[in-house]
UniProtKB/TrEMBL annotation:
The lineage of its organism: Bacteria, Pseudomonadati, Bacteroidota, Cytophagia, Cytophagales. This is Alpha/beta hydrolase. InterPro entries: AB_hydrolase_1, AB_hydrolase_fold, AB_hydrolase_sf, Epox_hydrolase-like. It comes from the Bacteria. The keyword Hydrolase applies. GO terms for molecular function: hydrolase activity. The keyword Nucleotide-binding does not apply. GO terms for cellular component: membrane. Residues 34-274 form the AB hydrolase-1 domain. Keywords: Hydrolase. It comes from Pontibacter flavimaris.
Length: 302
């Protein structure tokens, strides 16, 4: 049963669920073709990908989940909400769907969740599409450039600075630069976090995000396992939460990396530039398929 507050015209998808130890995790599975798996950030949910899915499902199979604690998934009070636990849930969803040759589409906190899967199962990931994201830790025991020291968990720091505000205030703060975003759309994000007046300190998005440095460090140490995966980076240059230095770090990391900057885009490109993003994603997948077909057609030397 979908909640009364859900705008079914904006989000006209059939709900699917997987039963996990933490509770029921909601996801949508729309369209046919090469699979694109979309992982949201925090505090958000699959609603953010609705406009991309409406376009891409014509030629692609689009899967978008709500992490436990977000959107239409259960919000248990006694679950840990640690990033590592979210990553385990994501693996279980992928095993349930038995997907191969996927393109991961990740955004902010969704990047470490998705890339943890790619590190563990690189043979299942054909490509990565990344929007403004990070996946490294601010550990005094590691050597980072001066600039990158200020990039770690920026959204987590922002959330912890807002612990005493309501979810309503938080969403308006996050989307304050999105001048054209209607209030009814903001309401969908607010409702997806639980009770609008609930203090942010009680929310999944603020509970465990910052205290994940050790896990981020573990991922970053294994990053070479995904370094050769073709990657498309779509980056909003007006992002006040994740600065441009993070993009520079990603650009240097991936061997095959295509970067599309959005000069007037902010942190939420999915809301601002859905049609452009969909076109770039579709073209990226087509080009990578062509490359793979050429490789497959080459004779094997014996």
């Amino acid at each position: 049963m979908k909640p009364d507050w859900l705008d079914k015209k904006e989000y006209p998808f059939k709900s699917q669920y997987i039963e996990l130890e933490a509770g029921r995790m909601h996801y949508i599975d729309e369209g046919e073709g090469p699979a694109i798996v979309m992982i949201h950030g925090t505090p958000s949910w699959s609603f953010m990908y609705r406009n991309l899915i409406k376009i891409l499902r014509k030629n692609h199979r689009c899967i978008a989940l709500d992490m436990i604690g977000f959107g239409l998934s259960d919000k248990p009070k006694d679950w840990s909400y640690k990033p590592r636990a979210h990553a385990i849930n994501f693996v279980q969803l992928m095993e349930h769907l038995q997907l191969k040759d996927i393109t991961l589409l990740v955004h902010d906190f969704g990047a470490p969740i998705g890339l943890a899967y790619a590190i563990r199962y690189p043979e299942n990931v054909r490509g990565v599409v990344m929007l403004n994201s990070w996946t490294w830790s601010l550990s005094k025991h590691q050597t980072f450039t001066k600039a990158s020291k200020y990039l770690v968990g920026p959204l987590g720091k922002f959330l912890h600075s807002k612990l005493n505000v309501s979810t309503n205030v938080l969403i308006h703060e996050l989307f304050k630069d999105e001048d054209d975003l209607p209030e009814p759309i903001k309401k969908q994000y607010i409702k997806g976090l639980g009770e609008p007046e609930e203090p942010v300190r009680n929310l999944a998005c603020a509970r465990e995000l910052v205290g994940a440095s050790k896990w981020y460090e573990e991922l970053w140490k294994e990053r070479k396992k995904i370094q050769s995966i073709p990657t498309l980076i779509l980056w909003g240059e007006r992002d006040k939460l994740i600065k441009i230095e993070a993009l520079q770090r990603w650009r240097k990391f991936f061997h095959e990396c295509y970067v599309i900057p959005f000069e007037d885009g902010g942190h939420f490109l999915q809301e601002e530039n859905a049609e452009e993003i969909a076109a770039y994603v579709s073209n990226f997948i087509k080009e990578e398929q062509k490359k793979q077909e050429v490789i497959d057609e080459q004779p094997i030397n014996t």
